[in-house]
Design a protein that fits this description.
Blueprint lengths: L6 H4 L6 H13 L3 E2 L2 E3 L3 H6 L9 E6 L3 E5 L2 H6 L4 E6 L2 E6 L2 H19 L6 H12 L17 H9 L3 H9 L4 H14 L4 H13 L3 H11 L12 H14 L6 H8 L3 H13 L3 H15 L6 H11 L2 H11 L1
Antiparallel strand pairs: 1-2, 2-3, 3-4, 4-5, 5-6
Helix pairs in contact: 5-6, 7-8, 8-9, 9-10, 10-11, 11-12, 14-15, 15-16, 16-17
Amino acid sequence: MTQKPSLTEFFKGRVSQAIAEKLQIIDRLAGTSVGHSRFYSSLDEVKEKCESWLPIFLLPFGRETFRACLHLRPQDVRSGRLAVMRADDEGEMIEIANSLEQFVYRALLEEEGWGNEEGKMLKSFSDSVALGNETFGADFYQQGRHGNFKRDDVGQLMITHFGGTAYAFYVDAIFLDTPAEKLAQYEKGLAVEPGCMALYVGAVKSLVALNNRRDAAERCARSLDCYHYTAYDADLNEYFELGRALLKEFPDLFSDDHKWILTEQDPRNWVRRAGELFNQGEVERADKILNDTCYGIRDYTGSIGAFRKHYEKLGWDWALALCDLRTN
């Protein structure tokens, strides 16, 4: 019987060693479950989950109550920082773990927290722990290490045990009372994931509530450099309206690109702008604009030809492989 192709084989020679090692782990876990998280069983299933609304730089590998994806933006690939993004629905995305190991650990925390609440563990829990320890080391996870916690404590445990994630700080901020308290958590989240639009939205709104509009404008300008605008549950139309007000007050804090992004509201002109930048040799800037355009219209696959031209010009073979997942 011919063995089905794996992610490792599909990306062979096209990604760094760091990414290849993560793909090997995902292949070993294919078809298994850790807690409530299920790893897709085949390359074909991964391809099936690459729907048009899913950003090019997200590689889906499993499912919980959300789609779990490796986050493969250019800066992630360059640095070897391979976080896990939760993609709940079209446009609703945020990093939930800073690595594949943290994702599995979090899944085990969720299952143990449930068992602590119910007074008994699921029969599958010991198998999940064994699988985690087999994959990441014998002492990777131990039941009882964190005491008698509940599922609602998992976010805080991700902060205390791993230093936090974008999602953990985002959720923590929501349940705090004052703008100052919220701002502190949003800023901690941005220290972990400085490319998270949802955290910037929260930080800017908190600063406005504190009547610190200049700092709000500075954060807003910085947020526009996020490579893709995965805003989770934040309202970007409302946020850009606030951004335009801050631009009028503090134009010196916004670059020409920032001003254009805030003021141009016709998606057709965004596409034209991406084409102009590409023809001028500003390929990475063109790619960012095209990513932002596709996020706004919730369709990346429709622009796959343009993405391919970008990545051929940039020599990003790993990104071309991500395009191939949607067409081959």
